[in-house]
Amino acid sequence: MGFLDTTVVNVALPAIGRDLDASVAGLQWTLTGYLLTLSALLLLGGALGDRYGRRRVFVLGVAWFTATSVLCAAASTVEMLVTARVLQGIGAAMMTPGSLALLEAGFAPGDRARAIGAWSALSGATTALGPPLGGWLVDAASWPLVFLINVPIGLVVLVAAVRHVPESRNPAARGAPDVGGALLVTTGLAGVTYALIEAPARGAGSAPVLVAAAAGVVGLTGFLVVERRVRQPLLPLSVFASRQFTAVNLLTLVVYAALGGVLFLLAVFLQGALGYSPLASGFATLPITACMLLLSARAGALAQRIGPRVPLTTGPLLLAGGMLLMTTIDPGDSYAEGVLPALVVFGLGLALTVAPITATMMSAADPAHAGVASGVNNAVARGAQLLAVAILPVVAGLSGADYQRPQALTDGFHTAMLVSAGLAVVGAVIAWAGISDDLLEHRGEPRPEAATA
Q: Which of 55, 277, 293, 427 is most buried, with most CB under 10 Å away?
């Protein structure tokens, strides 16, 4: 349900913008509102599950996510939708960390690999089906259905979890979770996000933007101070003592920022500049998903065999190549000659990058911090996407109703892809300079928790 939601909403953004008379900033908030609470509260969600019961927190998260999906569908203004999306992200932060932890705790060691494999296959299938399903729902009916599709899925999950999933918790978890740290990081990310998105319309020197920026800096700084002092921090800063772990997370930050920009703007560009229907734009991105499904496991095996340095350098370079090809796409270009080559190169780069990042991250972390390391990497990835959606339209000069103006959208999309390509190249440099080939050789197979990254 979580994977499906992230893929169907992007395709529906132009329709949401038209129906709710939203500006580019409104579309940004539709995504960043969700990513804000998800990335900020992800670590707290895992800590709550360890302390109070993973099934309990998972069920609460699914119920919350399902109920707020109805609120999203019922929104009649962009402000109502953004508020519902912020609330929806809270539910996602509660249900996401517990899914794999419940699988690991609920299956015998001999069955665990098959359970994780089924989880991965279902995640891949929903990711593949998301864009065309979202496009079909928008074309056949209207955009609220991309949120209402979560309701029957959520109800089935709730019944199955209550009846068939055993409760589990971490017996070593003691004391109250670090709620103060969660509030500080949420305030910090919210302030920075507001300042970045609203600066073009309100002015960078306006009081609301300056106050939000200051609150963001104070919140994030306060979070780091608190994490150094509390007994059970959400983010044990000691995990960054590993140079390799720090390098992998820096790589994750820049690569997922690049990906966030592409995933936000591509469907909008295909519909607004090239005239694709929502369904056609959903099917247009299937080459990316096909590359992921067919090649991700092979890329992980390749990194295990030769070391992660070459795949993690080559993958971002291919991503950059795909993004540069996207800068050549113009209104009137055919799909086969203009769009498809860029998406295939991009998909190859994505497949070569994602699995090796996950494996390398888990191998670089201290085994005692494996769960925390996975949560940190997941939060870094979501935070990077959040910042990309907030920053890239500003850098590209997209504002107001530009997503409905083909030439303005094309120019802005090309600029955004150039910036994203630059980020991907920075990722390749980080991988070449900071990742050691002997990581996977020395630590062996990645742990199941890594799949959340």
A: 427
